[in-house]
Amino acid sequence: ERADGVRPGNVIAFSITNDRGKERLVVVAETKADDHASMRADVSKRVQESVGLPTDDVVLVLPGSLPKTSSGKLQRSLCRTRYQSDELQPI
């Protein structure tokens, strides 16, 4: 299900493992919305309703920020790497 304000097809979800070995769910979404706190809460709620998992982090980025291949496919692995090295630029 789609969250209002999130660009369709411009969302990446991935898991990371924290220092304690616990898996965490991270969602990175492109948006132009101004109310970032509300947007993060809505994305988290939609993920919980859709797949039954809580999100540990929702990162909002500007349109065009998600890494893509030359053919336009989202690059989940590169996004995870950028997230873990603090290279994403959240809004």
Question: How does this model look, in words?
Answer:
The two termini are 23 Å apart. It is built from 2 helices and 3 strands. β1 (6-17) and β2 (23-31) form a beta hairpin. It has a 3-stranded mixed beta sheet with strand order 1-2-3, with helices on both faces. The protein has 91 residues and is α+β, with helices and mostly antiparallel strands. The protein has one domain: GMP Synthetase, Chain A, domain 3, CATH 3.30.300. The mean pLDDT is 93. Helix content is 27%, strand content 29%.
Sum this structure up briefly.
With 91 residues, this protein is an alpha+beta fold.
Write the layout of secondary structure elements.
Blueprint: E1 6-17, E2 23-31, H1 36-51, E3 57-61, H2 76-84
Parallel strand pairs: 2-3
Antiparallel strand pairs: 1-2
Poorly predicted regions: none
**N/C terminus separation:** 23 Å
Mean pLDDT: 93
Sheet-strand content, in percent, reads 25-35%
Largest sheet: 3 strands, mixed
Individual helix count: 2
Strand sequence of the main sheet, in spatial order? Answer: 1-2-3
Q: Compute the number of structural domains.
A: 1
Shape: globular
Quick tags:
single chain, 91 residues, alpha+beta, GMP Synthetase, Chain A, domain 3, three-stranded mixed beta sheet, 2 helices, 29% strand, globular
